[in-house]
Task: structure prediction
Amino acid sequence: MTAPEAESLRVQPGPARPSAWRAQTPVVAVVALGGALGATARYALSLAWPTAPGGFPWATFWTNVSGCAVIGVFMVIITDVRAAHRLVRPFFGTGVLGGFTTFSTYAVDLQRLLDGGHPRTALGYLAATLLAALTAVWAAAAATRRVLKRRQP
Result:
């Protein structure tokens, strides 16, 4: 095989495709922005509604329950009603609501209650949060579907 023939068999590179990271940069950016907004709102609630030592952490409880209700409504709207822009779900669902609701603060609250000698309050908080959060997401999604069904001509 001659040199020109070998050169013609060489695979020519196609158009450059963006790297996986570059393609995901907008998603990462909106999750970070949404997370900052949600976490700031959660922190503001904890400052406005502080928990007394050994007391039930109402601010974290209601933050998690209300965030779960909002995610129930949000998921119905973006899945059943209309398709959202590809960045809406990462921004609002993962970012804002992920930053607003908080498993880490929930876990720290439980640990503080246990370390402070309040195991019954800790157990009640553990169970109440789980039941209320699951009920909130289910009830909000069901109510949203009912409301949307009634609004249809």
